[in-house]
Amino acid sequence: MKNINLKLMVDFIDNASTEEIFEWPKPDLHNITPYACNGNTDGLTRFGHGFFPRLLDQNNINYEYINSIKSNLQTTGKKWIYVMEVCGGPDIWFGSNPNSLLSGVSDNVLTGVRDNNGIIVLYASYEGFDPIRFDIFKNIKKELEDKKIPSANFCYVTGDQKSSFTYKEWCEANNIKDKFHVICYNDEEAVPFYKNRINDRRFNCFKSEDISVKPEKYFLCYNRRPHVHRMALAALLEKYNLIEDGLISFPDSTFSEGFPDEAELNEKLENLIDPNTQPHGWELIDGNEDTKKDILHYWNKFEKRLPLLVDIDTLDDNLWERFDIIPYKKTFFSIVVETLFHGNTIFLDEKIWKAIEARHPFVFVGNYHGLKKLKKLGYKTFHPHINEEYDDIKGPGDRMFKIVKEIKRLTSLSFSEWESLLKTIDPVLDYNVRWKEKRSVVGIDNFIKEVDSQR
Question: What residue numbers bound the domain in which 166 lies?
Fold first, then answer.
């Protein structure tokens, strides 16, 4: 990593009592962690569990702790950067005063930003919220106006890979001239998931090819949170008798983070089938009654199987960073069901990166043109060996049905046909692993330069 003269001030939106500045790199220090800087500071302990410091640590980026409240922030030279890691969704970020986005930021920091000595970075690179649906751009603009913060001194970092384009369109539509910065960056791509293998003790190795496990099923399909698009996919897999063909995880109704109630399920299912209609709550949409009834019928049938577990005893714990290679070795391909499936966003979460590190071909159940974006980032996908025409279908319902049709075809192949197919696409799998390793370095380097350029 090249030396970058950059100061970071860090705070969590949900707690205004601790504010920190981190500076990296420091020439005479190497691989400094927050604990090494000042282990008795509660703010540092909390900061050490965040996504942003993990990004720094995993990529050997050095930084130094400075107390923002006690320090003189009226600096000269390059601006310092104040990083706010998000907690929860936009409905929490933009609560009513005094709990608005910037209400917890100290006067010391706000004065420094107003005086052009620093910038604020809202860091949500591990989330891909639809900026239009949640009025993110509108709410940020209002916050900046209320706090008299120059737009040029604010930067929104998001895992939505199209937000910079969406923001440009939004500004043009609303005649916005005074713009803040929007950077699209998914820091989960830089996470070395393979180093967090949960089965290393059993196999004492790091290369998946060293594990002699043969496929027992066709596909692997992880589902932790019961999002409606995951419920719809499960129902369709049930309808076409595909459940027994795969290793599937899915919680039951006792799941600690909850299931959608009947009204929410109906409304979101309506929107999934046809996003152009207005939500009707309990009613069925004209023209879609049979489709919706069909999905609900097979969901009820699938629900009797729950819970379904693959590699852990409970889905209550969020093990997003953990990695078990065995289920991948026991199957031929992954059905990667992303956190988001429809909306004005493209979000690639940890499940796609894990499949790549596992050298596992995949069917992508995510946002419209998600595969197109993945290829734009330099990765390769599997068309024509896997029919990926579904990626060009904008309507979420039609895209889902096309995806399931391809899963049906893939599970109709014999095991010997799949073994031959894997030999054909093996170069793509190898390439993606190597490219992710390269992107982990180049991506973070480009991200830091882009943030640094805003100063």
Answer: 6-185
